């Protein structure tokens, strides 16, 4: 009987200690505030084949029109990472100085433009959301609220004037029926306060599922590889053609609204590396 009581007491103490240890471990995990880094890679191509070469790569649209790009740039902002439980981490939301980037094909390395994000909370992320352009909330902060990014945008030719704001997407190149020999210029973007001016808001947000979980830790820096299919420019949900009426356009005309809507669908996550 003494041995039986001793063993019973031993197992009770053992279970209490085990549960306490697990609870402490869970508490430690739930309070883990460590951060890591994450990289997003943009690769611009046609029909999900990457590496557009400026002034060289020619695409034929759904309507049979040939076109190429001499300039291909767009603004990415308000990057949000969404974890397995649906919780969101917003990376410098509406803070262009720290959270906006210009994807410029002229800067591509082996066809890829790299965006490096730091200070990302340790977590397993299943989705990414980002803005194409600059939100009205960020723009209306005024020049003092985004002086650094405004300077970058100006240097990259991604601004109108301060009163008007930013170019969101800049596409320039040549087009034609049999050969691409006629110049075009389509620059999309808001001009000023769209509510006060009663003009379309061309800022768009895109949410993408990740095929593999991006696991951010202090040791692991995931890399999210996004393909941008520029075939959507003229061959998207609305089939477009460049003409003498729309080949030189800036702002938010109906043609540029259609261009924006088409290009909103150009992004997809090709793969995720957890390195």
Automatic annotation (TrEMBL):
Matching Pfam families: MbnP (PF20243)
UniProt keyword annotations, A-Z: Signal
InterPro entries in alphabetical order: MbnP-like_dom
Residues in coiled coil: none
Signal peptide annotation: 1-25
Ranges for domain Copper-binding protein MbnP-like: 35-248
Protein name, per record: Copper-binding protein MbnP-like domain-containing protein
Species this protein is from: Chryseobacterium lathyri
Lineage: Bacteria, Pseudomonadati, Bacteroidota, Flavobacteriia, Flavobacteriales
